[in-house]
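Got a spare moment? Tell me how you read both lines of this record:
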Amino acid sequence: MRNYYWYADQSGGEYYITIDLPEKADASLGALQILQTRGVDRSFSFDERASRAFLGLPRREGAKVPVVVRFDDNQRLFRIDFPEPVPPGSTLTVALRPYRNPSQPDSYMFQVTAFPAGPDPVASPVGFVTLSILQSVSF
């Protein structure tokens, strides 16, 4: 996970989660689920309409990837569906846009789960990513 806006309550940031899909995977990627599992602020909101995905890395973006993003604020859970499944061998980055960073500095942790494209997909845990939010400094 990458973030270029590190300070508590800062606006204008995007949180980038990059996944390398194995070339020899048996299926394309159909969806991701991202769940906040740690972090003192559990009320910062996201602009689902501004969330996006692309092939490549942050600041080296490739082709856009269509997405449908839903965020359940109560469960702190994202569901990101790819109407055009992402093929094996791709490097995919999802960019999530908060309205503002969390109001409290902390290490925020998110669990990432992948779902293959196709009927009755079986969830596959990808791992955890960490978002570090720092206390803003005033002079």
Notes: The mean pLDDT is 93. The radius of gyration is 15 Å. The beta strands are 2-3, 15-20, 29-38, 52-57, 60-65, 68-72, 77-86, 91-96, 106-116, 124-133. The first strand starts at residue 2 and ends at 3.
